[in-house]
Write a structure and sequence with these properties.
Blueprint: E1 2-7, H1 11-22, E2 27-31, H2 54-65, E3 71-75, E4 78-84, E5 87-92, E6 97-105, H3 119-122, H4 131-134, E7 143-146, H5 151-158, E8 165-168, H6 177-185, E9 189-191
Parallel strand pairs: 1-2, 1-6, 2-3, 7-8, 8-9
Antiparallel strand pairs: 4-5, 5-6
Helix pairs in contact: 1-2
């Protein structure tokens, strides 16, 4: 019986594991080896780690965690979680069953890349999900935001901080007049047509 099971062994999960290890808790980190940032060559915005490869950051953090005798790792995927008798039972894809008093879900998000030709090949290089992580290196260049959810309008309002921005509606409905005025005030160009494909870098 562990004190804590952590599902996800990237930045969030390893950060949680470090604090728990230093509190002398028994911790097991379960990780499938597919962090969200696996497509990015470098990671940015972390104190003392700006520009480091994400995999290298994860490997270094794991190495430091293994110095604590109460930390273990399982390279596996969680198939099922059950709450029983004030504890959690986690069943892994391998069939292994683990128990803990507490459970931390630190597996983050899974990006759903739109099915536009050329999009997947550029994911993590020139098609990006986070301007704070990657926007700096594209500063001053023409930028685009693809409308995929209601949050896309917020992103289109934000991106002009890094460069001239086009908001690609990709066939979705035009924003209301107030939103259009706000986008125009920020210098955002609205392109209503659907994208056929991405070309270039």
């Amino acid at each position: 019986m562990f004190d804590v099971l952590i599902v996800g062994g990237s930045f969030a999960g390893l950060s949680a594991a470090m604090q728990l290890a230093r509190a002398r808790r028994s911790v097991c980190v379960i990780d499938s080896g597919s962090p969200r940032n696996r497509f990015a060559a470098t990671s940015h915005g972390f104190f003392g780690q700006d520009g480091a490869p994400p995999r290298q950051m994860i490997a270094t953090a794991r190495e430091k965690l293994l110095a604590y005798p109460t930390v273990t790792f399982h390279a596996d995927q969680v198939d099922e979680v059950e709450h029983e008798d004030a504890a959690f039972r986690v069943t892994l894809a391998s069939g292994t069953s683990l128990m803990a008093r507490k459970l931390i879900l630190a597996f983050g998000l899974k990006d759903e890349v739109p099915s536009i030709p050329g999009m997947t090949e550029r994911w993590g290089y020139s098609v990006l999900h986070c301007p704070y992580c990657h926007g700096y290196k594209f500063g001053g260049r023409p930028l685009g935001v693809l409308s995929v959810s209601p949050l896309s309008i917020h992103q289109a309002m934000l991106i002009p901080e890094w460069g001239p921005t086009t908001f690609f509606l990709n066939g979705q409905a035009l924003p209301d007049e107030s939103t259009k005025a706000n986008l125009t005030q920020r210098g955002v160009i609205i392109e209503p047509a659907s994208l056929a494909a991405l070309e270039g870098v």
